[in-house]
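Q: What does the predicted 3D structure of Glucose-6-phosphate isomerase look like?
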Amino acid sequence: MALPSINPTQTKAWTALQQHFNHIQQQHLKDLFKENPNRAEDFTIKWEDFYVDFSKNRIDATTKQLLLQLAEEVKLKEAMQHYFEGERINQTENRAVSHTALRMPETAKVLVDGKNVIPEVYQVKEKIKTFCDEVISGKRTGYTGKTFTNVVNIGIGGSDLGPAMVVESLTFYKNHLNTHFVSNVDGDHFKEVIKNLNPETTLFVIVSKTFTTQETLSNANSIRDWFLQSAPKDAVAKHFIAVSTNIENVQDFGIHPDNIFPMWDWVGGRFSLWSAVGLTIALAVGFEHFDDLLKGAHKMDKHFKHTSFDENIPVLAALLTIWYNNFFNVQTEAVIPYTQYLNQFATYLQQGIMESNGKGVDRNGNKVNYQTGTIIWGEPGTNAQHAFFQLIHQGTKLIPADFIGFAKPLHGNKDHQDKLMSNFFAQTEALMNGKTEAEIRKELEQKGVSKNEIEKLAPFKVFEGNKPTTTFFINQLTPESLGKLIAHYEHKIFVQGIIWNIFSYDQFGVELGKELANNILKEFYNDGAANHDSSTNQLISIYKSKR
Ligand code: F6P
């Protein structure tokens, strides 16, 4: 069954939102708080160990009601049924989008093309568990009998970003295995990673859904060559593992059939960390923690699937994106985690959000006449405060931001945690309230600054405020809470795509550059004149003269 295909701008809710926007854009968040003493409570969702506070957004009860009406009018509920029932909602690639099946309990049933996929999911999970237990305990060794000390994940895009982000985020939970990630085709990347590694004690996990990706295969081949400089040929079987849907190509590479972890074409690359693509995660933190990550994601799946839209965290967050993107003409959104562990989180989200919703053609094949796909970026606080916060506070652009903070630190340092959290709360307060010129003048007067000086300085010190933020206040960073958080963003992407009436699960936009690069690569090896524009021709010829 096809997804509903409704132009959001043709809905009644959209017209009403436009009128409503004219009114609300003049309103200051400070005043909205004054008008409604229960605002914080009214716009906060308490769910499990999460407090999600939407109250510092430029919305009121009418905005919420109209956005919810928009969700109804574009038939979000119906679309969700297709998503969760294993239907081929990735219509342009004719595939189901069923990564949520990867975190379901063993007793569940998810039919993809009429077949329950859960038994296969659990077979692979069992294989991951056994393999990880053996490597971590030292039962499984390298070709000289030494236990493994290092794991290198070789993959790119969804076969790198998810595992790399989760391993970094769960550093606190890591065991003795050192994990590394090689992704870029830049030869300096893999060389730097392997330069201090001992082939005898290193395990290589090649992750590629298609097993045709240039970067991954180049890195895998070069690393195998390096490995074989000191190891015998049959040692490859003990040190190289693969995760892929393309079993034939994996075997051609020389990987032992026992060392192949399958995945399925109903799991998109950027949503695949829950499958065997997450093998490096399970190796780094142990299978139990990996499983807790999946359990957390499943809890968010249930919340998303069963909660009414007015209390539904991913639905409300997605609707807010539409509100800012399509009515306030906002271009970007920031994600600011107040924990250093999540320093890869925005990078990870960039693929999920921008590869999914960076589309300009609707589900009927027509060019859209409204904005889609937000640009996502961010860095951990408090570092971000000393880098780009100036622009968010006083620049000309409106940048809604998600602030993610955790009540309990992992290492238990109270002094640092209090400082961190005071910044976490202060920033959203400052962004919302700002500081008026009158307040600035008063403050400067009290400091004894001269009248003349106040005149000169005051305009530059004004903070307009009214900058929207959503606060995710979570008890502690655990595998489970991280799973919930990632799944939240996955569902938010889905809802945005449904409302914008685009296909979120293909990525044709990455193809053209790949094709051209393959052509140019061939040109490096022949002398014929290149047939490009004069700029590209010139650059290629300079490169050829220098390489
Ligand atoms: O960037 C395009 C893309 O197809 C991503 O969607 C995917 O995650 C990545 O390349 C890697 O693909 P593979 O896992 O097949 O090597």
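A (community wiki): The structure tokens above were generated from the sequence. The chain has a mean pLDDT of 97. The domain at 511-546 is CATH 1.10.1390 (Phosphoglucose isomerase, C-terminal domain).
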